[in-house]
Amino acid sequence: MNDIDTPDAAAHAAPGQAALDAKWLARAIDLATLNVSQGGGPFGAVIVRDGELIAEGQNRVTANLDPTAHAEVTAIRAACQAVGDFSLAGMTLYTSCEPCPLCLSASLWARLARVVFAADRDDAARGGFDDREFYELFARDRATWGMAVEAVRPENAPEPFDAWLALEARTDY
Ligand SMILES: Nc1nc2[nH]cnc2c(=O)[nH]1
């Protein structure tokens, strides 16, 4: 079992929460290990609301030819379908590994209340995954990146936002 009862976790968790966290993290880790034997990457995740399992996810990047199919993202997609909403406000994401920047951003967009992880970015690096490197990249000037990120600003660049703001019946997210 993982020792997740750190001072930091304890500061945010209600009494009894540590045992519940351990239970859901164990499921996420099981999903991750199982996924390795099923042609996927070593990552698993579950989404829980009020102690109830809403959805599970596994890394399907290579299996689905989808670089965004990280375990957390597949769990978020499945949870949104399960509850019929693009918001997962009030829910907790348990993941077998610290979310990479993609998964952390997806978690923020999904408005999750909590993210709890087991292995960390150093464990992922040992497994050959770039999570830590991407965190380090975001802390650096983009000019130093291997991938060019270029702002080109045609006159009508803000136009889609004008259309959005003019739409009274828009669904904000
Ligand atoms: N947390 C996490 N990190 C990854 N790095 C590569 N794939 C994944 C994934 O599915 N989850």
From TrEMBL:
CDD domains: nucleoside_deaminase
Occurrences of domain CMP/dCMP-type deaminase (ranges): 19-141
Protein name: Guanine deaminase
SUPFAM superfamilies membership: Cytidine deaminase-like (SSF53927)
GO biological process, one term: purine nucleoside catabolic process
Enzyme class, broadest EC rank: hydrolase
InterPro entries, A to Z: CMP_dCMP_dom (IPR002125), Cytidine_deaminase-like (IPR016193)
One MF annotation (Gene Ontology) recorded for this entry: metal ion binding
Source domain of life: Bacteria
EC number: 3.5.4.3
PANTHER family associated with the record: CMP_DCMP-TYPE DEAMINASE DOMAIN-CONTAINING PROTEIN, CYTOSINE DEAMINASE FAMILY MEMBER
A Pfam family per the record: dCMP_cyt_deam_1
Keywords: Hydrolase, Metal-binding, Zinc
Family as reported in the entry's similarity comment: Belongs to the cytidine and deoxycytidylate deaminase family.
